[in-house]
Amino acid sequence: MTSLPLLLDRLANASDGSDARDTLTAMDDLLTDLIKTPTKFNNVANELLGDYSFIENSFSLITNGTLVSNVNVNEGESAAATLFITLFTHSLPLYTRTSLAATLLAATLYNNPLKRDRNIIPCLLDLLANDNADTYSRTLAVQLLTTLHSLKSADFESTLIATPSGLNTLTDLLATDVDESVRNEVVLLLTEMSTISPSVRKLVTFSEGFDRLFEIIKAEDGLTGGSIVVQDCLNLAKVLAREDGGTFLFQSQAIPTVLLPELLDVSKGQEFVYRRNGRTESQDREDDDHIAELLGKTPTPKNMRATADQASLTPPEEKVR
Fold first, then answer.
1. What gap in Å lies between CA 58 and CA 77, rounded to an integer?
2. pLDDT of residue 5
């Protein structure tokens, strides 16, 4: 097993992307082998996070897939994110994971090419905002954010809110055109954050969080689709509606008066909607007549129905002579 100092030196001096990626994989393997011995794991993990060159290169990889030396690393974003996620393996003691999360959140780059006073959260947000990044890397980024929040929620929130457009980057991912795996992870993260933070609830609400959630719900066929995504979105909407978030919702957004009634309209159910399956209006009317016959009612003649339909379209002032 290669020692960590040798791996750190190898990463810092990697001449090509393949060598850098192999080194990150070797670091991950080293940590994985030590999981059953938490004390040794903790020592190696702290040595890793205490190496400034490693922090520089790993943050650079997450942000743009390159080392500080501008060496491009294929799938470097996912390799670096995977390594960080290994630091918080659930089988490790909670105090170990919490301590490492605090160390990672405190790791900061100064006067660097990426941006001044930069830490892990802005790097992960940049990865999420990069539409050209692969889905797997972006999904890992949200999972790492969720892990850091669950372990050090106060530090995480303060850093996120202090990051320019930090929370907006997350709410922007609540969209129907965002890859589902990324979007769904963001829904879970925002739910966790909003549950314990009134500030986050307000910010997500003011960022059109409700409208975005209900657009996703509509795209998932609403309550008739049986989608777990719909349940997660409704759960987040319920959390956002707490306290003054609910007041803002009813005062300034269309959800209570438009979207909620539409969502709860049982006539939208699959058994009621014929045209969703490509049926024409005449076919719908034939079905209405058939139902009327089954109920023992006389179907409305077509000429009378047409007259009634035409009358319903006549402005009220023209109906009364």
1. 8
2. 92
